[in-house]
């Protein structure tokens, strides 16, 4: 499939019926055993990369419009990203920018360094999910749902540091309420202690 590069993996395991033919190009069969086949994909996309062209899907078309454009076999995910409400880019075809470096990768934080030579969309092949935020050189930036399942951030030309962070809204709300509850307990404890302190005798 033309979308195989988005899997960001070199080896693919599939179940095959006896006598099945070779895998479709450009996959290369590595091993077949017990009804399973391991195939190698020669050129998977890196975890993060820049594209200079986008297909912007009108919000009214929703997920169905995104999926329809992704299923177009002429689409090259390494060069063009499908976005809903994201930046409209019509830059040079091909990989015109230096590779993106992932300098930090944690469960709730990913940092990338990119230096696009033209306006670009940095594509991170990590799952898109509400709660992810991004900054570009320390300034907040919108996270664009890219190719239906991944995350993207628009970048102007030049070197940039992009940081993705995940903070679930219910978690933040719970943390704030816990902090208020702790503060209330401290205040009530202090007030109760003051009430229990006996007054000094007079005279």
Structure description:
The chain has 203 residues and is an alpha+beta fold. Helices cover 18% and strands 36% of the residues. The protein has 2 helices and 14 strands; from the N terminus they run E-E-E-E-E-H-E-E-E-E-E-E-E-E-E-H. The strands form 4 sheets. It has a 5-stranded antiparallel sheet with strand order 7-8-14-10-11, with no helix packed on it. The relative contact order is 0.14.
Write the layout of secondary structure elements.
Elements: E1 11-15, E2 28-33, E3 36-40, E4 48-51, E5 53-57, H1 62-70, E6 80-84, E7 101-106, E8 109-114, E9 120-127, E10 132-136, E11 139-141, E12 144-146, E13 150-155, E14 160-166, H2 169-196
Report mean pLDDT, rounded to a whole number.
84
CA radius of gyration: 26 Å
Overall 3D shape: globular
Question: Strand count, sense and closure of the main sheet?
Answer: 5 strands, antiparallel
Which strands sit side by side, in order, in the main sheet? 7-8-14-10-11
Number of strands: 14
Assembly level: single chain
Helix and strand composition category: alpha+beta
Measured between the Cα atoms of the first and last residue, the distance is 95 Å
Low-confidence sequence ranges = 171-176
SS field, number of helical segments = 2
- Fraction in helix: 10-25%
């Amino acid at each position: 499939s033309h979308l195989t590069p988005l899997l960001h993996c070199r080896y693919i395991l599939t179940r095959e019926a006896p006598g099945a033919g070779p895998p479709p190009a450009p996959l290369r069969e590595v091993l077949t055993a017990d009804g399973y086949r391991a195939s190698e994909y020669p050129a998977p996309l890196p975890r993060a990369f820049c594209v200079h062209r986008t297909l912007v899907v009108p919000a009214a078309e929703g997920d169905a419009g995104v999926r329809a454009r992704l299923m177009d076999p002429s689409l090259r995910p390494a060069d063009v990203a499908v976005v809903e409400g994201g930046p409209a880019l019509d830059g040079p075809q091909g990989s015109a920018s230096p590779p993106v470096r992932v300098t930090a990768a944690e469960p709730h934080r990913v940092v990338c360094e990119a230096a696009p030579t033209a306006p670009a969309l940095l594509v991170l092949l990590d799952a898109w999910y509400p709660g992810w935020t991004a900054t570009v050189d320390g300034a907040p930036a919108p996270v664009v749902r890219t190719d239906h399942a991944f995350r993207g951030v628009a970048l102007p030309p030049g070197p940039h540091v992009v940081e993705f962070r995940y903070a679930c809204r219910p978690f933040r709300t719970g943390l704030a309420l816990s902090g208020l509850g702790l503060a209330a307990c401290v205040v009530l404890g202090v007030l109760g202690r003051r009430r229990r302190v006996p007054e000094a005798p007079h005279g």
